[in-house]
Specification:
Distance between the termini: 88 Å
Structural class: alpha+beta
Shape: elongated
Largest sheet: 5 strands, antiparallel
Number of strands: 15
Number of domains: 3
Radius of gyration: 48 Å
């Protein structure tokens, strides 16, 4: 076996204990007894080392098992009973085993060694028990007191060999014994763990400590008597016999103090149990709030705990949703009975005005004889469920006894009500979160659909440069632009702004795309296309919705643009260092379905010149606001176009978007931004490329 004295993990503690036990056993077979100092020193050293490693291993074993205090005490009682049995009941057996044997006999040595090993093991376990109980629940580190006791236990045990040194100094042993017993008494008082036992456990501990105190006292008497068992111990190791006596004194003292201490704690045990149950219940509720999102389960738990901790006969939870009181969870009462009491409290005690925990005598609440309580409750405790000073319901506890709910009861009910209030709030937030997540998924779909509706690229035409931008204010927007390849070397275009924002505007935009896409292939005139679109939208738009738009056609062969405008922002023409605004008359689509719409709609034709720039936009650009809530405005926009008119079309568009973004920095975008720019760059007629 590998032996290492300096390794102290659990495995090596066991190996060290076994190694020293084997060495001690072999030593006792070779030199079973002696009367010289040279025999005594190695003998006591081996006994001490064996006992030490047995004890530290058993101490580690007890700590690893996480025994409860009562279980540890019972273990000490069982081992003290074993010592009693060995010292008393085994006396005839000892006589018979060792009868006729001398100390020189080999069998005598083996039997004596095994006999004494029983004491080494049991005393090691008993001392380990005392050690665990001493340090249990200690707030401060009392190692100094305990180590001092251990030192005197060792010195007093070794003092039993004083006669081998000098009989004249035998007074040292009783002096050390007195000091050790005094230290035992001082250390036995340090038992704070008793306060944390339940009332039932304290009653059990009183009974057990009584039995153990008597048992250890009897063992003290047996250790002091003249019997063959004690003689075998003294022959094996005088120190071990003395140590046995000290452990029995320690046990009698320790469990005697435990008896009286527990007895004094008994009157307050019920109050401590209640506080412990309250704390445990609050911890469990805290865990539920983080792990369980089902409000019904949490409400049932709250009412159940309220009846247990607050010593109430029934409890129920009432929620206040849209000023309507509803019973959501009950314990030991029916929903019908709970509703009756809530109704009575509302009419007689103005339940909705209760803002803190309140105790109410139930017989002060008037009931019709036909609606009397089956449970015959005498008092109620009502606690509001408050979140951010808003009362979202009530936790009500009921008691049949004449005793009213005291301050501790009210505090507990108030604490549970706070948790229930948080649970209600969490349930609402979870519901809102789920709804928000659902809407976000719908918006994702709508956003994807919208970007599929808008052109993924601008048409490529040799004589015409085109640039377009679309920036929605929200997840989806109501702005729309598109291009249409028409016959006879023509390019159709449209820009529109649907009133409103969000999904509804996006759906209208999708419908408009289909309308303009179909009409552009059938009708040549922008004015007639808008007239027909207005007729179709009559059956789609409600009275609150309308669409502004510009529809135009660029005739590449004849170098001109024809367009009509219905309520939209003006078309801007940048030509030779100046800006022209085209504000042809026209009502928004969907505003009027009579002949007024057709009569007010104009169609304008513009002859294009080289480097002409046509700008179409929505009011998200001119109405962009800065931190002072000032609009960007048409003047700034036109100046920006002129300053960038000599640049490539994409750079012009980028500069416009960049300038708008810088201007409105610090103020959120409130409307969709759409920009479509055309630049006529050649007088040569070319065919329209693929869009």
């Amino acid at each position: 076996m590998k032996f290492n004295l300096f390794r102290f993990d659990r495995t090596y503690k066991l190996e060290n204990a076994i190694a020293f036990s084997v060495i001690l056993f072999l030593y006792k077979l070779i030199l079973p007894y002696g009367n010289t100092l040279w025999w005594l020193i190695p003998n006591e050293a081996l006994v001490f080392c064996t006992y030490y490693f047995v004890t530290v291993y058993l101490l580690e074993f007890i700590r690893s098992k996480n025994y409860k205090p009562l279980s540890i005490v019972l273990n000490a009682g069982i081992l003290s009973a074993i010592i009693f049995f060995v010292l008393s009941s085994l006396r005839p057996i000892i006589y018979k085993v060792f009868e006729g044997l001398t100390r020189d006999n080999f069998m005598y040595s083996i039997a004596s060694t095994f006999y004494n090993f029983i004491f080494i093991m049991t005393l090691g376990y008993i001392f380990a028990v005392f050690t665990v109980l001493f340090f249990l629940r200690q707030k401060k580190n009392p190692k100094f007191y305990f180590n001092t006791l251990v030192a005197f236990l060792i010195l007093t045990s070794l003092s039993n060999n004083i006669n081998f040194l000098d009989p004249k100094i035998d007074y040292i042993q009783p002096a050390l014994m007195v000091v050790t017993i005094l230290l035992i008494s001082i250390n036995s008082i340090r038992i704070p763990w008793i306060a944390f036992l339940t009332k039932k456990e304290k009653i059990q501990l009183i009974i057990i400590s009584t039995v153990l105190t008597v048992l250890f006292i009897v063992n003290i008497v047996l250790c002091a008597s003249d019997n063959p068992g004690n003689k075998l111990l003294v022959e094996f190791s005088p120190s071990l016999h003395q140590y046995l006596m000290l452990m029995m004194i320690y046990g009698a003292n320790f469990f005697g103090i435990i008896f009286f201490t527990t007895l004094f704690h008994l009157p307050t045990a019920a109050a401590f149990d209640r506080k412990a149950q309250e704390a445990s219940s609050l911890i469990n509720l805290s865990k539920l709030l983080t792990q369980v999102f089902d409000f019904k389960e949490l409400a049932d738990t709250v009412t159940d705990i309220t009846t247990q901790v607050c010593n109430s006969d029934s409890a129920w939870l009432v929620t206040n949703e849209e000023n309507v009181l509803s019973v959501r969870a009950v314990k030991n009462i029916s929903y019908v009975e709970a509703d009756k009491i809530v109704l009575s409290l509302t009419t007689e005690h103005n339940l909705k005005s209760i803002s803190s925990v309140k105790t109410i005598k139930l017989n002060s609440v008037n009931h019709n004889k036909s609606e009397q309580q089956v449970k015959n409750f005498n008092s109620l405790a009502v606690a509001p469920l408050k979140v951010h000073n808003d009362v979202n319901g009530y936790l009500i506890a009921a008691r049949r006894a004449d005793e009213l709910f005291d301050d501790d009861d009210q505090k507990s009910i108030g604490a549970f009500a706070d948790y229930a209030a948080v649970a209600i709030e969490n349930a609402k937030l979870l519901k809102e979160s789920i709804e928000k997540e659902r809407l976000e998924k719908e918006l994702d779909v709508a956003r994807e659909v919208q970007y599929k509706i808008l052109p993924d690229r601008t048409p490529k035409i040799d004589d015409l440069e085109i640039s377009a931008f679309f920036i929605p204010a929200f997840e989806v927007g109501g702005d729309y632009y598109d291009f249409f390849n028409l016959s006879d070397n023509r390019l159709g275009f449209v820009i529109a702004d649907v009133s409103g924002k969000g999904i509804s505007a996006a759906f209208i935009m999708a419908e408009i795309k289909g309308i303009f896409g179909s009409l552009a292939k059938l009708i040549d005139s922008p004015r007639n296309i808008l007239i027909k679109a207005n007729e179709i939208l009559k059956f789609s738009l409600d009275k609150k919705s309308f669409v502004t738009a510009i529809f135009g056609i660029i005739d590449l062969a004849n170098e001109k643009v024809i367009f009509s405008r219905c309520g939209h922002t003006p078309l801007l023409l940048s030509r030779e260092g100046s800006i022209s605004e085209y504000k042809s008359s026209g009502l928004g689509l969907g505003l009027d379905h009579t002949m007024n719409f057709e009569n007010n709609l104009e169609e304008i034709e513009i002859k294009l010149k080289e480097n002409d720039i046509l700008v179409l936009f929505t009011d998200g650009i001119t109405e962009a606001k800065n931190g002072m809530l000032d609009d960007y405005g048409m003047e700034r926009f036109e100046k920006l176009i002129l300053n960038n008119s000599g640049k490539p079309i994409d750079e012009l568009s980028n500069n416009i978007i960049k300038e708008i973004s810088l201007f409105s920095q610090g103020n959120p975008q409130h409307d969709d931004i759409t920009l479509v720019v055309f630049k006529w760059i050649s007088t040569k007629n070319k065919n329209v490329g693929d869009s």
